[in-house]
Write a structure and sequence with these properties.
Chain B: Pfam families: Oxidored_molyb. The complex is a heterodimer of chains A (about 260) and B (about 200). Chain A is an alpha/beta fold. Chain A contains five helices and eleven strands. Helix content of chain A is about 20%, strand content about 30%. Chain B is globular. Classes of the chains: A alpha/beta (about 260), B mainly beta (about 200). Chains A and B meet through α1, β3, β4, β6 and α5 of A and β6, β11 and α3 of B. The structure holds flavin-adenine dinucleotide. Flavin-adenine dinucleotide (FAD) sits at the interface of chains A and B.
Amino acid sequence: MPATSAMDSAQSAGFTPPTRFAVPGRIAVSNRAAATWQRATLTEVRRETPHAATFRFAVPDWEGHLPGQHLMLRLRAGDGYVAQRHYSIASPPDDTGHIELTLDHVDGGEVSGWFHTVAEPGDEVEVRGPLSGFFAWPGDRPALLVGAGSGVVPLMSMVRHHRARGLSVPLRLLVSARSPEELIYASEYGAETTPVFTRTAPEGVPVGRVSAAHVAALQADRPEGGWEAYVCGSNGFAEHASRLLVDAGQPVDRIRIERFG
Amino acid sequence: MNVTRGFTGRPRVRNDGLPPGQYDAGDDWPVLSAEVTPDLTPAEWTFTVDGLVAEPRTWTWDEAHALPPSAYEGDIHCVTSWSKFGVRFGGVSLDAFLDAVRPAPEATHVVAYSHTGYTTNLPLADLTGGRAWIAWEYGDGPLPAEHGGPARLLVPHLYFWKSAKWIAGLRLLDHDEPGFWEQNGYHHRGNPWEEQRYSGD
Ligand SMILES: Cc1cc2nc3c(=O)[nH]c(=O)nc-3n(C[C@H](O)[C@H](O)[C@H](O)COP(=O)(O)OP(=O)(O)OC[C@H]3O[C@@H](n4cnc5c(N)ncnc54)[C@H](O)[C@@H]3O)c2cc1C
């Protein structure tokens, strides 16, 4: 864990705009870690769904991260061409010297394509991070997590952290997937999780999108002081889910959104 | 950095317009905002310039539209590595607003802030000389809400997080004051050609 984890927002002094304030960052990030490329060695590949797999790396000098943070990853071709993309960190902070990423295989994708068709243990890539203290969750406030597809990745880091540390602060996860087969980390969810299936669902479970009813149930359940909401997924999903949260009474300045583009 | 085994990248044509570490997003225009897209109508939108200026001022939608129109045609670059070529934004040059408020000689930096509360810092010099706009058109239509409509700041020579969506105002200061992403580890200036992505780059 970074030493800064307890620091709640670097946004102390300074100009505050005369508007309803967007949630400030939760933690101060290490500028040095954010600016330094490190070698990451792939040690294990675990299939999660037909389209997603988890890639485990040894990164010996990793300074730690908080659940919800992401990193920048780069690959280099023989002619010097470099491709870099952002990926959320799936593993919890206490996995010292290791990090895990979960990548969707994007059709025709340059970086995810390499991971899904070429990468094997022993391969090396470069990473820098962790980046952004904004979407981080130190484990201190009740958290309502809403994700779809690979948007569940940073949220799973939070769930794993909650479990690993035996935290008692309330945590709930609403996760949307096309079908049970497409649900990433399916075997790891517990009572904190409500899965929603948009195309095919197990017997007795309705098919449909994340709806006002799902969000209303979670809002009805909110702890004293309310939820801190974390929404992650495609932009379309983020727009839909954040709108539902606002309509259900979640304050806009307590909704954090990570859009995968 | 070592070559990544078996990585060739997709076939590419040489593109001198592409800053280091960027790729051409083609027709895609990813949306990357940290907050809920606000419901903000043109009638509710205002734009204020204050701080170290001789005459602070707030413009309404109609007042801003009465200024001489100015368009940007060119490229934009996002820190998440995509670039987008040959886009057109229509609006008003920021020079028109700054000329009206008359910046004080000691003003060196600006905090741009949006109607959501998002902030980003810029050197004043990056906003003058026909290099920055308040934009409300994209292509031939209105700027879509998720891309900052009804109006956003446009500073195309810097990474796009500097081009604050749902722009509400600029405050001129005599010092640099980090904004939202800058406090979250991103570079203070963000020049794509120098790859100023994170603090320390
Ligand atoms: C903060 C953040 C966190 C993220 N976390 C995750 C995560 O945890 N897991 C995850 O899976 N993703 C995540 N993403 C998305 C990730 O960064 C990449 O966008 C994704 O992996 C696709 O990259 P790619 O190189 O495989 O695809 P790209 O090569 O970028 O292609 C994307 C799409 O464009 C098309 N395309 C673009 N150019 C061409 C071309 N010249 N020819 C043909 N097709 C083209 C491709 O077919 C494909 O459909 C995250 C994004 C952000 C911003």
